Amino acid sequence: MKYIALQEYQKIGDIIMKSLNHSRDTIEKAFVVILLSCLLLVPTFSLAETPNISSTTPHKPAYIQSKNDLVDVQVAQRFSSSHPLAPTTMNLDITELLQQVDETLILGYLENLTSFGPRLTGTEACNQAAHYIYETFQDMGLAVRYHNYTDNTVSGSNVEATLYGSNSTNIFIICGHYDCVAAGPGADDDGSGVAAVLAAAEIMKNYEFYHTIRFVAFSGEEQGLVGSHHYAEDAYNANDTIIAVLNADMIGFAPLPFDGTKGKIYENSASEWIVTFTQDVSQVYAQYIGIELSPQGETWGSDHYYFWQFGYDAVFYHEYNFNDYYHSANDTIAHMNLSYSSRFTRLILATLAEMALQPRPVLEISGITGGLGITAQVTNVGEVNASSVNITISVTGGLLGLLDVSSTNGIGMLPPLDSLQSNVKLFRIGNIKIGVTAGASNADQVTKHATGFLIGPFVLKLVITP
């Protein structure tokens, strides 16, 4: 409503006239007129002209409507592995890696990927793109394979290349999806992520890492995360020790200068440590990266999702300003910011390299003995110091099952091949069950069990149990 009825004006006039008749000061008269006009006219106009602001398009695969269209996964909880420590100072080897990522490298991969046209999974163009990625990995000298899958929705192939660790079977994954929608060439969605994967592989192949790295390009993402679902399921069934999954999906759109300094990262509660790790990397290597990440919480709309479902830690890296040309014919290289894409690639590469370079201590419970109480010993059989090491001895049982004792001993640092002992004193009688658990801030937790017989303070007939 932009106009006020005549009757309303008459009422206003009456009010104004009364004010004029009873006021002694001309300033007060004028104030009343202005005030009443503003109160009636301005709000009416403002409400009529309020713009309708729409929300940002949510990121999701093109051919499904909601999370309800995804497969519900029911699996046993996986044991959570220890996490690598975030960096506090620059590693010169990693700065050397970062300096090799530039716009020319990213542009070359983008041009090759988009040259096939729309890469909808199940089409010849998508198969050609898979073959290109396979051959590219193969030419790098990496161990490469097709991970084929057949699904009620679509059949296709993921492409995986592996750079084996020098002394570890722990796995770190960098991934993106090479398929796209039928409407366009998918330069940003997700040529940008696959270009980051290929660039990381091209650079990292020339270096040695302590842990194993997998470079994975998924298909079937747009049909409902189909390729990554089968990949994560197979990894779970094979009991792969995947420590972290770094999923890059749309990291190349930044039309404004402010957009080029920001990025988004999606995580679940178990994966928050990767967010912190990446943020620390961003600060330590700021001169090479220049992107500040904002945590966004959980989302189901990209290939990290099924890793969460199968109990693996994963994050989803995404551009700050959502691409205006998402899922359209205009998702082209011309609408990308290659400087931003290169710097985002450096951020993910530095995070991956820092994680994969770190050797980790390995704790072993090397002894549980009886006698006067119970003594447990843990030894660091790894190659680096274990930090904040703790041993906990728990004892239950005894006569009438009344014994329930727990004792913890710790040390700030345990060097390789050194041992830490802990002892607990008891005074009861009867059969007992013993549990010994050892852990460190940078090592996996280990546990051993034993049984024995307690007479007063002495533990006899101690036997290690499975």
Question: Can you put this structure into words, describing what you see?
Answer:
It is built from eleven helices and 17 strands. It has three domains: 6-49; 71-357, Aminopeptidase (3-Layer(aba) Sandwich), CATH 3.40.630; 363-465, Immunoglobulins (Immunoglobulin-like, Sandwich). Helices cover 32% and strands 29% of the residues. The chain is α+β, with helices and mostly antiparallel strands and 466 residues long. It has helices at 6-22, 26-49, 92-98, 103-114, 124-139, 187-204, 226-237, 272-284, 286-289, 305-309, 338-357; strands spanning 143-149, 156-163, 171-177, 212-218, 242-248, 262-267, 292-295, 314-319, 363-369, 371-372, 374-380, 386-397, 403-414, 419-424, 428-440, 443-456, 458-465. Mean pLDDT is 89; it is low at 1-9, 15-24 and 29-55. The strands form three sheets. An eight-stranded mixed β-sheet has the order 1-2-4-3-5-8-6-7, sandwiched between helices. It has a six-stranded antiparallel β-sheet with strand order 10-17-16-15-12-13, with no helix packed on it. A three-stranded antiparallel β-sheet has the order 9-11-14, with no helix packed on it.
